[in-house]
Each structure stands twice: as structure tokens, then as C-alpha cells.
């Protein structure tokens, strides 16, 4: 579900305020208190378990798959016929796909491709967004009149990007660059740039009014050093939380672009979104070809969402119980 532009900005600004929350009266750090709450949160435990399983499957699984994911053994053996695709068996746990390849092996190898694309696209958005948000936040908090002008210009650009539906923006970028795996990563990364930028900027502005910043300024420390060495490190908490949530949406958007034919044009390379797209014309013959990758996408996105939301609640004092 896509949030309305106003609601999206309000949510980001609220999350940015978390970095300005003071430690509790007993002197326990915000992150230590958050970790204690996460260990007691069932949603965080379930989300973390799903993600550990997904990462293990993606990293280790491809070394132990029973068959080559590109080997068309089903066609070679003559078991794939028009209107008939064999299902599960003792040798092929999830059966064959429409080109006679082992579905289980492709699903396991496709998990690695999905993980890599999701992480790289999130890192692209995080890197560019942190750069823009860091400049805007430092300019607004420490730059005086001209700094506020720079911040205003950057934020209007960010607001324009936030006003566009994320999937529409990703499709536009992917269509402009042409279908490829790199295009998918860039397109999904561009979608998350304004989110990270606005979030870090709001967090840095909240930190700019803290006592340690005023103390450093009174001691004559350069503003650039205050921003880089002090404000930015203390402003990253909500950004890290958002990165976890962005991974969930990135995996879904990558699958959506592949489903629309804007992903990797090489169909021999397994990827869950592409597998889902290839299976749509065989739903009446083997619906499992669409169900297996769809379940993988849903469960993985659920894991990132559960963990991310639990982290947000653990860091937000208004949501603590």
C-alpha cells in the first residue's frame, strides 16, 4: 500500500525525531534499551528468524541444490508435454518448470539473486539519500541564512520525488534505462533516495539543538567537523530502522519490475519476480509455478517488515508499553 505524500512525509518526520530522544533516567543508552525491548518482542523474534532462514538459504543453499537450475532435463527426458508439466516427485520436490528445469533448485538459487538485488538497491538509495540528507541537515542546522536556502532547494526536490507513487517512479526509471538487472537496482534505489534524505535531514536538525552541539560550537570547533563527527553519527538510528523497512519494499518492487518485463532479460537466471512472470501463462496447468516464488517474496518481505516495525517501536518512547 502506497502512503499519500503528506502522510509519507509526516511518518518520516516523526521517525526522524527519534534521534533526539534522551536516554532514560538510569543512564541506559537508547540502543541498549531498544535491544532489550526487541528481545522481548514476539514480532521482532519472528521477523529475525525469517530473515536468518532467508539469508542462510540465499547464501548457502545454492551450493547444495540437487540439480543445475538451468538444466532442461525435463525436456530432454520428454516429461514436459504441451498442456502437462509434472508436479512434485521423489526426485524433484517441487516438480519442473515450463522449460523442464528443477523448480526447487531455481527457487533456492533465485533467493540469492533476490537478496543481492534488494541489498544493492537499498544501498544505492541509502548512500545517495544520506549524502543529500546530510548536506541539507547540516545546512539547515548550522549553515545560517544561506544554509537554510540550500536546505530549502534540496528539500523541494526531495518532496517532488516523494509526491510520486514509488512503483510508478521505479517503472519510469526502469523504462528510461532499458531492461537489465542493473536497471532494476538503480530504479528501486532511486525510489528510496528521498525517504533516506528527508529522514536524515530531520534527524540532524533535531540533533543540532542538543547541548553537545552548542558546547562544541562554543569551543570553536568547525561546523563541518561538528556535522560529520558528531551530528551525523547520532542521527543514524532512524535511518537504520528505515533501511530494514526499505529492504522489504525493495524486494517487492524488484519482483514487480521483473514481472512487468523490466528486469533481467536473461530468463535462464532464476529470480523470484521473473519466475512469477514466466508462470502466469501456466496457471491453469501448474499454479504452483506462481505460488512458490510468490510465497517466497511475501514471507521475506514480511520478515523485514516485522523486524523493522519492531525496531521502530523499540526506539519510539511514545510507542513503548
From TrEMBL:
Ranges that cross the membrane: 44-65, 115-141, 153-175, 181-200, 239-262, 290-311
Membrane topology label: Multi-pass membrane protein
Pfam families xrefs: BPD_transp_1 (PF00528), OppC_N (PF12911)
Main location: membrane
GO BP terms: transmembrane transport
Protein name: ABC transporter permease
Entry keyword set: Cell membrane, Membrane, Transmembrane, Transmembrane helix, Transport
Family per record: Belongs to the binding-protein-dependent transport system permease family.
Coiled coil segments of this chain: none
Subcellular location: Cell membrane
Organism: Phytohabitans suffuscus
GO cellular component: plasma membrane
Domain ABC transmembrane type-1: residue ranges: 111-308
InterPro entries reported in the protein's UniProt record: BP-dependent_transpt_permease, MetI-like, MetI-like_sf, OppC_N
